[in-house]
Amino acid sequence: MYKYAKVIINSETSVLDKPFTYSIPTELSEAILLGHRVYIPFGLGNKKIQGFIFDFTDVVDEKINYKAILSICDELPLLTKKDIILVKEMRRRYLCSYIDGIKAIIPTGITRGVKRKINECLIVKNPLSGKFINEKYETIMNLIKNCNGAYTKAELVNNNNISRSSIETLIKHDFLELTKVMEDRFDKRIYPNFSSFKLNEEQQIAYDKIMNSNKTKFLIYGVTGSGKTEVYMKILNYYININKEIIILVPEISLTPQMVERFKGRFGNDIAVFHSRLSEGERFDEWLRIKEKRVKIAIGARSAVFLPFENLGAIIIDEEHETSYKSENDPKYNAKEIAEIRCELTGAKLVLGTATPSVDTYYKALSGEIELINIRNRVNNIKMPTIEVVDMREELANNNRSVISDNLKCSILKALENKEQVILFLNRRGHSTFVSCRKCGYVFKCDACDVSLTYHKEENNLACHYCGNKFKIQDTCPKCGSKYVKYFGIGTEKLEHEIKMIFPLAKVIRMDLDTTREKNSHEKIYNEFKNHEADILIGTQMIAKGLDFPNVTLVGVIAADLTLNLPDFRASERNFQLLTQVTGRSGRGLKEGKVIIQTYNPEHYSITDINKFEDFYSKEIEIRKALDYPPFTDVLYIQFIGVNEKEITRAANLAAIKIKDLLINTEIQLFGPTPCEMYKIKEMYRYKIFIRGIIQYELSANIKKAIYAIIKKEFNNIRISIDRNPINII
Predict the structure, then answer these.
(1) Close Cβ partners of 294 (under 8 Å, ≥ 6 residues apart)
(2) Which fold has domain 386-431+490-623?
(3) How far is it, in rounded angstroms, from Cα 409 to Cα 390?
(4) Would 201-379 and 386-431+490-623 be classified into the same CATH topology?
(5) Could you tell me the pTM of the whole model?
(6) Cα distances (angstroms) measured from residue 580 to each of 39, 425, 465
(7) Angle 81-94/98-105 helices, nearest 10 degrees?
(8) What would the pLDDT profile of 610-651 be if each residue is shown by its tens digit?
């Protein structure tokens, strides 16, 4: 048995980001395991803190009197050996700390004491007898019998108008007793049966290639409505039958209700669901169900890739192109890369699926790193929707000042007359996107963020979409005092008001960040539209992909240029993906679909090549190659964030000088330092350095080390953010 353990301290402090050696007391030597969470004494005052067993050793400095581990926190280790390998790889790739990697793997809140919820519930101990046989007590006893021991005292009193004294009497005389019952904090609803379908020829070929190939990584490039989900289900069915486990990742919480409905309708209720809208207790219970091997299937957003399955058969990533699979907080991991590592560690297969592959993934597929599988037709030979592009410059020339073109207006009216449904897509929430003085040009901005405020009519305020601060409406300009204050631009809220004015008899609902803040609000809106309780669904990008509504025959894109204007080399790719995905919501049933795309830039290839991915890719990859951008290079994006504007400028300049020394004799380019596009957010100023080239992990680690040395030596209140191959560069 080992006498010493290497422990990772539960601390965010960068100087503590290393294993510390502790002795293992004799009484713990047989119980303590790799991955256990333990209590240890730390620092001069021997403060009792948590740590994680990362390794064991007998090679120590005999001159040091090592402190001993105090106790084990949990019966089961929270981390496996493979988890520890994964944490080390995350630290190497994403420049995060050990503890950041660990906290990505275990449930949020577990280090703060979140545990199983245990209730004291009433059960029948003995039948009533003697003077206690009466209607009052019989009612109580029957209620408890019929609920299978699920009532607490409080629930019985509050829900059934029963006196607490009556319950206490029955306990006192041994007719009732209290027992401890674990409460399951997860969805136990039974979903309607979702029948299986015989795969068509293309689907069967896709399935056979995945199951029969010696390769382990696959990209299913299938047009919208081609039945990729049915292929996923067939794969899942195979692995369940051989007692293997499967993780299915979806990019948006809004897609989770549909996936859950289908998979639970097919495979039953023993499926874990994992995403950020769950409470800490719900996340812990779902995680524990998997840890205790009570379920074999999990569906969830990005963080579900870490769920503690130990016998994985496959990880399936739907809509693999989505940017939400990349975390923008430490650890800044990419769920696709984490899935790839886990599949390599376990021998599982990785299946990526999308109608619009990311440029990076498709490049890997063409190079042979990933096996490419094409599904070029919709199921049942359903036609792709017809696409009409409306040049909004011509609408303006024809004196139409509405955001709704005449073509779209007529098409909506026709769909409503035919009892069909409509989706209207606008990737900007709020009522007006900025408020300005027409006399002097002053734009109302957030004091803390230096970005324009968005007007929200329903709440009657101006809101910052970065920090959440809200401000009262002002009728006069604070700069010049004029009353020529006007609201410019359009968001989903304003679009909703305009549509209701034009089509007063239509039931209109909206899905964006403002309408989905409450728990289960995504599911409520999804079900309302699915059940045709609404005619028109207006929304941002959360309605653009994955959702399947057979009665939707018209999709309208209100402003197809919004994403193109972002200062990011991926802007064209994102615009193409969004537009292609949202067009795929139309005509998925028996009726033919139509899409109307409104734009001020109808000649751009991200618009002209909709539903023609190969054409788009050939143009985009040439631009990337000419400009030396990914997938041909790597990008390292470094931000300096602080309250003192002069200090962050100086820190960024000192760091740039040091980094240039590290880049001597390489072809790697350094750009900056310059202010970030969003220069001030939440009272914090931000500077950036942008590095581009073939950047080895060792070099990026040396860059991080050099920057932190500068900050530690000269600056106290500056935060550093380093992101390898970031999704957003603003």
Answers:
(1) 270
(2) Rossmann fold (3.40.50)
(3) 12
(4) yes
(5) 0.85
(6) 52, 12, 26
(7) 130
(8) 989 999 999 999 999 998 999 999 999 999 999 999 999 999
